[in-house]
């Protein structure tokens, strides 16, 4: 059939192992068994395969709608990223892709698009030679426009991390929605013509057709992938109906004996037709024929009008600016598709069978439980572990500032190594000593280098894409090579890379601080962790002579010793306490509470699930640690008194010591060993945190690299498509559509236009429908 309207071709895909992937997903992540959903899995898998080969009719439309409603339902139960969906683009000169995105949302967009495209195909296939056919076609195009507006909303509301292909861009959706609306208005106009409505009415309908096409054209110019034939088709239609509207008002003017206005409007219409002919290159044969028919009628009428006005009427011909504008009459609007705008309501109609995976727990519930698990761990660290460790660090600092326990060890044990020094050496060896630290530093260095390499790969990939784009721009010229600038297209991923580079630099600076601390501690730690550490330490720590203390001073020293021992005891108790709380936190699973609360929400008909809906569950969960937090508070209160007592005893000691000789060399040596041990603990703690940071960072860097790869592959596909289009234009010198026109038989008759009939009140009778006017 020779159509003078356009339909949107269906996007295509290929089969995917949806059923098998769903089985694996449910078994691994849902705490439910896939066997309970066997029939659901088989049905959704078959449904997807069926929509890949639909016929563009009402049965195919019903199948697409059913799949979309089911997709919308299960998207509330499944993670968006559980598998890839490959889709081919069909708007360009040839099929492109596939673009495979790991997103259920992407699948929904494509199915919604095909619903809109199917409406356009059905509308085009309606026999528009009858009034009933025109009415149906008009309705279908309105539904197509409404469906494309729904796709537009999906595109505009897409997740930020989802990068859609260009043929699913906002501008494409706006263009298609307006194009379908223009074609619906054209069908209404054609029915008005066939019903011989007044010229004034037909004129208003025609100018609205032109306006809709103009709105579609303004958006089409912003699209990089639409075929030139489509853009010229839309432009020709815009001009055609603009001229037709002027012609119809010319008919109204001559009927009212306003011959000057008639002539003015015919001249305007003729100029518009000439513009359309100049700008037309690749129009469909039927569109060119329509334009030629209209132009012939206008030219004939213009010659007659000029002759009559010059010889008979002699009326002044007004300027175009003096003519009243044509008032539009819109008779169509985008009709919403309930399956797209309100899939939940469509689901409740029972038209699409039972809702699949009804009893499957929403993945959001699992994600909330996982998030609460992480929040619970952070809560324990923030309110229990870190405060308790900080209390211990404060005690160590107070002891170090007051020279303890080195001071009392120098007095009480002047000629042998103190027990605490020997204990520190033992702990060092148990924890791996210097070898452990070296492994830590090597692991961090490897992870840092790996992270740097991943980021460098990201940068190189973007540089490669930019270089290739610049090369193609030099090769084809910036006017033909109209791909978006690389820096602009990759702005989001570049921002992610820069943020990660900033974090990595900060981490590297922190690593250097830790390394410097380690270098300062290294000689002492090497000595303390050596196999013959006792001998080395005895050589390092000088002996001092025994000093007999006065009774009061001896009491103070003994109290200081007791307090130092109390600090060690507290440190041990706190380590045990922290480990106990960690075990408690591990055993306190929050998932059963979240699931129970979800079922409670369902019973109360609360279907909208958000994290805020479960905050009550989290508060109840962390209340299990209230007694532990009180225990930390009790330690804090008791420690304040202990700190005051230690400081007071040291002050009393300094007041009473007088001329008592305490070897400063021995005191300094013991203090250095104490500081080295505490420094070792700090380095180990910092390195442990560093390993955690780099492990997390590597995962994030790999995610960004995957985005860079997706961006690079997408840009290469778009570049290859654009280059093919450029070569097609240059090699053929014409589009395939134009070539098809020229290959038609030269003696193929053109549509004839009937001449105007006598004085019947109308200058002509549009009994050929769409053929002109």
From TrEMBL:
Signal peptide: none
InterPro entries per UniProt: ALIX_V_dom (IPR025304), BRO1_dom (IPR004328), BRO1_sf (IPR038499)
Domain BRO1 positions: 4-395
One Gene Ontology CC term in the entry: endosome
Any Pfam family hit: BRO1
Domain of life of the source: Eukaryota
Family annotation (Gene3D superfamilies): alix/aip1 in complex with the ypdl late domain (1.20.120.560), alix/aip1 like domains (1.25.40.280)
Compositionally biased intervals (Low complexity): 738-748
Region Disordered: start-end pairs: 732-773
PANTHER family: PCD6 INTERACTING PROTEIN-RELATED, PROGRAMMED CELL DEATH 6-INTERACTING PROTEIN
Similarity field: Belongs to the palA/RIM20 family.
Annotated protein name in UniProt: BA75_01674T0
Gene: RIM20
